[in-house]
Amino acid sequence: MTPEERTVAALGEVEVRLHDFVNRGAARATRHSPHYAELWRTMRTAVSGGKRVRPQLLLSSYTQLTNAHDEPAIQLAVAIELLHTALLVHDDIIDGDDERRGAPNLVGAFRNGGLAAGLGPVAAERWGETAGILAGDLLLMSALRMGVLPDLDRRRADRIAELLDESIFRAAAGELADVAYAVGLTTPSVGDIRDMMADKTAHYSLELPLRAAAVLADAGVEIEERLGAVGRSLGILFQMQDDLLGVFGDPERTGKSASGDLREGKQTLLVAFARDTEPWRSAAAGFGDPGLDERGADALRHALETSGARASFEAEIRRERDHAVRLIHTAGLPAQLEHALCRAADQAMERHA
């Protein structure tokens, strides 16, 4: 098979294993309580859907770097997707979000179920958040367990374990910094915000899959480091585009609110570019207000545009895209992998605005 055919086949196997993972958990949970079985069934929605960016990136990179057996890469791709889902579930709780991809997330589904069963709003919210915390914990532990690859030699197995540990460690650091900035404990600089994005999202989402592909393929430390730098830049690029869509995107197309980040008071580069301008100072009272309505959100969007912050931020996104492409072209990668990574950079720019 060609590398592309191997990637397609491996991605199909990832889907099968994710489906089996949830089904086995649901069957096992029936021995405990109906509520626990329902938690596992609801986790199926959390695990399903999405673009499988991380498994795709890992598997396509791996198959371009080596002709070796695909099994370790498939198992690790499943582990990384479970890690991604765990972090999303916990992030939704931290952010107070009850929807994802335009539908109730796991927390929202359990909260709604509690309300339907006669719970009051406070008890139903506690029920939903409890389910989310436990689901995230279960997914996280399963990801770590699946990240143990017994068929690898000790050196590569240890390196994969180090990468998973580093991703979780940095994701927690980034999440805490994100909340510290949002609640006003710290006013972040542009550099602080970039570091937060690299920790919270970029490492586990793109740097981890690319580095892991190099380790599994035994491509050497130099290729791993180069792919790590590419992954960091691509991760920041994707996050910046997410932050732009989180304020100016069309909810019907993005599946997420265009007011949530403003209501939360999320300190993005977009906001940092506006912070010291008169239009933003005049409108900023609504920023971070849990009761912010659409009229108030529109006033903040107007300030972000008239201050020049949106234009500056979009220019920064283009610069990051160009930086990522330069890193890709100078990394000494196989031509098809180089093309695929450049395409990923372009796809970040093409997402629904």
UniProtKB/TrEMBL annotation:
* Record flagged with keyword ATP-binding: no
Q: Does the keyword Metal-binding apply?
A: yes
Q: Which InterPro entries match?
A: Isoprenoid_synthase_dom_sf, Polyprenyl_synt, Polyprenyl_synt_CS
UniProt keyword list: Magnesium, Metal-binding, Transferase
SUPFAM superfamilies tied to this protein: Terpenoid synthases (SSF48576)
Q: Write down the Pfam families for this protein, in alphabetical order.
A: polyprenyl_synt
So which domain of life are we looking at? Bacteria
Q: Needs which cofactor?
A: Mg(2+)
Q: Its family?
A: Belongs to the FPP/GGPP synthase family.
Please give the PANTHER family that the UniProt record associates with this protein: GERANYLGERANYL PYROPHOSPHATE SYNTHASE, SHORT CHAIN ISOPRENYL DIPHOSPHATE SYNTHASE
Under which name does UniProt file this protein?
Geranylgeranyl pyrophosphate synthase
Organism (species): Homoserinibacter gongjuensis
